[in-house]
Amino acid sequence: MAARIFHTEGITKVYRTGEVEVQALRGVDVELFTGEFTVLLGASGSGKSTLLNILGGLDRASAGTAWFSDHELTAMSDRELTRFRRDHVGFVFQFYNLVPSLTARENVALVTEISRNPMPPEEALERVGLTHRIDHFPAEMSGGEQQRVAIARAIAKRPEVLLCDEPTGALDSKTGVQVLEALERINEDLGTTTVVITHNAAIRKMAHRVIFFADGNIASVETNAARIEPADIEW
């Protein structure tokens, strides 16, 4: 049985603006396992991104505890969380956040230059099928290609975990499938624990497990015994 890589107990998150209070998470207990491809599925505002940001060390819980392996994230200082993000986590967001004046190779090298044991940018780009675009600038690439550069940048530091927030949200179905195929290859070839947030219910069919969110908490968990390939997903 796979080892537990993340777990939370009673995670609550409250955002306050003046006298307005919004409870984004309501006592979430969750477990994520090494090497798993997990989809977090739910409507906008259900708490998926808030949980992902806490697990990735980008945000802090209002209450409860979150753990990465045997390290308590909720007890870490800002400096310790920065080190955690640098050494253990790769992020992929809906928007690619590439530097327009840098080539694909140079965008990936931004990460490899500060990582402890990086893979060469050329290898990272090869793993997402972009060897032929290695010296192209973002403006010379399609949206799907730019997102795959972002994935290459995220995996180039060899993270244990890849956290993806709506990675296909800005893409059409054809380019979305190419991005999902890249994520699946990373999960299978490198064993990278992969968590994908989406509101697209069709994507759940390629996951090992699906965690359904509603109203700031987990509504249900589904184990997928009959996974399908990204190309077979009906968008």
* CATH-assigned homologous superfamily: P-loop containing nucleotide triphosphate hydrolases
The count of β-strands is 10
Mean pLDDT: 93
Counting structural domains, the number is: 1
Separation of the first and last Cα atoms: 32 Å
Query: Which class of secondary structure composition applies to the elements?
Result: alpha/beta
In short, what is this structure?
This protein has 235 residues and is of the alpha/beta class. Helices cover 28% and strands 29% of the residues. Strand 9 (209-214) and strand 10 (217-223) form a beta hairpin.
Folded structure, characterized:
This protein has helices spanning 48-55, 78-88, 104-112, 121-127, 143-155, 173-190; strands at residues 4-17, 20-33, 37-41, 63-68, 71-72, 89-92, 161-165, 193-198, 209-214, 217-223. By secondary structure, it is α/β, with parallel strands linked by helices. The protein has a single domain (4-232), classed as Rossmann fold. The strands form 2 sheets. A 6-stranded mixed β-sheet has the order 6-7-8-3-9-10, with helices on both faces. The chain has a 4-stranded antiparallel β-sheet with strand order 2-1-4-5, covered by helices on one side.
